């Protein structure tokens, strides 16, 4: 039963509306795009495989494979070791989770962008460098 559930979840390759166009524009502008996600490798790889955005990512880093997860600093350090020329002060962590993405990026010394399309109130201790409510705001920021 658990295996069937994992297979079902792994086929759910849904993305935020407009994410494909955003990634296309970022790629056109010359940005190198990586995905960093917490989760089970099988599920996350299959989700990406069933989505229209897979080709935009140079690499996908999954917590299960990394042996650690966001927001731990070593998650980001292990990623940095795998990307030639990676510099934390030249990277930008973009995410919708304050506790995983933003706090993790902060812990690693990276600038962070909190994608907050629903205008949620930040009641956490994580302070993003930037907050955006739309993909266009990200493009304008960059």
UniProtKB/TrEMBL annotation:
Transmembrane segments: none annotated. SUPFAM superfamilies: HAD-like. Pfam families: HAD_2. InterPro entries: HAD-like_sf, HAD-SF_hydro_IA, HAD_2, HAD_sf, Pyrimidine_5'-ntase_YjjG. NCBIfam families: HAD-SF-IA-v1. This is HAD-hydrolase YfnB. It comes from Streptococcus suis. The lineage of its organism: Bacteria, Bacillati, Bacillota, Bacilli, Lactobacillales.
């Amino acid at each position: 039963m658990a295996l069937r559930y994992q297979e079902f979840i792994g086929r759910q390759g849904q993305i935020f509306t407009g994410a494909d166009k955003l990634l296309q524009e970022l790629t056109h502008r010359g940005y190198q795009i990586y995905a960093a996600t917490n989760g089970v490798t099988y599920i996350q790889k299959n989700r990406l495989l069933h989505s229209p955005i897979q080709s935009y990512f140079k690499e996908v880093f999954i917590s299960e494979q990394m042996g650690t997860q966001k927001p731990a600093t070593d998650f980001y350090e292990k990623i940095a070791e795998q990307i030639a020329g990676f510099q934390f002060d030249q990277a930008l962590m973009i995410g919708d989770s304050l506790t995983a993405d933003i706090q993790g990026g902060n812990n690693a010394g990276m600038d962070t962008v909190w994608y907050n399309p629903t205008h949620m109130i930040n009641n956490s201790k994580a302070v993003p460098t930037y907050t955006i409510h739309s993909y266009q705001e990200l493009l304008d920021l960059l």
